[in-house]
């Protein structure tokens, strides 16, 4: 069985994470679109922390014996990996968009300079 | 136009709208000669220099020598630079795009040979190859092995012999311009672009050329980095085979 102290500590940390994410969304420093995974992470960790019986059951399903909170670590790590992967796709998209913008700027600027010089003549 | 020279330009190319796409990153020393050679090869050729975030006087020098310059606000790398040129060519209705490097290693007087299969309608993309015929080009052993390996892989994919997959000396028709304007892999545009073009059923052919050593400055790929480069290119080619295409395949 999970020690009570760990349950209390993990629940508090999960609640803090959720509160932090909410605050970032509320103050518009984090777009909902990028916050969804963080909210999911916080919720899953909160449920697994507070619901002691559930954590034990899942631990026994996946063959973790003796120390159920190990499942908390594993799930937490999995979500961190998911969040990182998500950000990699976001960065890739931004890179592509950035390149397209740079190309458009070059094309438009060249056209603009040509028009300016032709009206001056 | 009668007084202007277009020595070596195939006759039926003269009616086509043609543009040279010249990527240049800090090439103020080499660009003058490149532009002069293009001019003397074909006076009816429009020339677009893509200054890829150059911090020297590439832009001023190229403009002073009659080229249109597309100045990228920061360095995108060769693929992003060249694609800017293809976008320009596509949007301005050019029939023929001649890709020539801004560092002077491509000899414009050989462009007539390279463009011939495209002008004659036998190919969508013609590539100037250093290895179809031997001679002229020296490089390190590591690099030669790498080039061979790449050629072997791409030959298998294309089901036709291709020898110089990293050559940027290319001539494209409008169909190929459209493809590269819409989607050109930015990391290794020659090899990856070639594989992509083949997947889009483009007809590719090679024309023997000789290339020169660089006059000023150094190539973007050092000899020591060649192995790492090769590994990355092979990985990119492999992934490219499974990559979703952004351009709908049509065989108009």
From TrEMBL, chain A:
Keywords: Membrane, Transmembrane, Transmembrane helix. InterPro entries: DUF2304 (IPR019277). The chain crosses the membrane at residues 6-25, 34-54, 66-85. Pfam families: DUF2304. This is Unannotated protein.
Automatic annotation (TrEMBL), chain B:
The chain crosses the membrane at residues 221-242. Residues 21-174 form the Glycosyltransferase 2-like domain. Keywords: Membrane, Transmembrane, Transmembrane helix. InterPro entries: Glyco_trans_2-like, Glycosyltransferase_2, Nucleotide-diphossugar_trans. This is Unannotated protein. The lineage of its organism: unclassified sequences, metagenomes, ecological metagenomes.
């Amino acid at each position: 069985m999970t020690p009570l102290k760990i349950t209390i500590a993990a629940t508090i940390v999960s609640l803090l994470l959720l509160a932090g994410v909410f605050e970032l969304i509320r103050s518009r420093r984090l777009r909902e679109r990028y916050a969804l995974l963080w909210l999911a992470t916080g919720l899953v960790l909160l449920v697994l922390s507070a619901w002691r019986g559930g954590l034990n059951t899942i631990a026994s399903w996946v063959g973790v014996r003796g120390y159920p909170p190990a499942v908390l670590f594993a799930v937490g790590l999995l979500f961190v990996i998911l969040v990182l992967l998500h950000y990699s796709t976001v960065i890739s998209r931004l890179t592509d968009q950035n390149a397209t913008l740079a190309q458009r700027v070059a094309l438009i600027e060249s056209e603009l300079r040509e028009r300016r010089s032709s009206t001056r003549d | 136009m009668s007084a202007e020279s277009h020595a070596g330009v195939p006759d039926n190319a003269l009616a086509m709208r043609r543009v040279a796409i010249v990527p240049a990153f800090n090439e103020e020393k080499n660009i003058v000669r490149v532009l002069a050679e293009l001019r003397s090869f074909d006076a009816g050729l429009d020339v677009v220099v893509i200054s890829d975030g150059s911090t020297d006087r590439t832009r001023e020098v190229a403009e002073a020598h009659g080229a249109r310059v597309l100045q990228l606000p920061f360095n995108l790398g060769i693929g992003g630079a060249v694609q800017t040129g293809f976008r320009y060519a596509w949007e301005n209705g050019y029939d023929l795009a001649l890709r020539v490097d801004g560092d002077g290693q491509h000899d414009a007087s050989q462009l007539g040979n390279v463009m011939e299969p495209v002008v004659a309608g036998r190919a969508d993309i013609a590539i100037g190859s250093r290895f179809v015929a031997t001679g002229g080009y020296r490089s390190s052993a590591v690099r030669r092995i790498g080039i061979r390996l790449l050629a072997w892989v791409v030959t298998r994919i294309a089901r036709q012999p291709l020898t110089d997959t990293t050559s940027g000396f290319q001539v494209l028709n409008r169909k190929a311009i459209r493809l590269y304007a819409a989607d050109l892999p930015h990391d290794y545009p020659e090899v990856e672009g070639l594989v992509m073009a083949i997947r889009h059923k483009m007809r590719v052919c090679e024309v023997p050329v000789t290339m020169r050593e660089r006059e000023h400055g150094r190539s973007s790929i050092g000899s020591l980095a060649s192995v790492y480069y090769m590994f990355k290119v092979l990985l990119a080619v492999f992934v490219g085979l499974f990559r979703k295409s952004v351009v709908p395949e049509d065989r108009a």
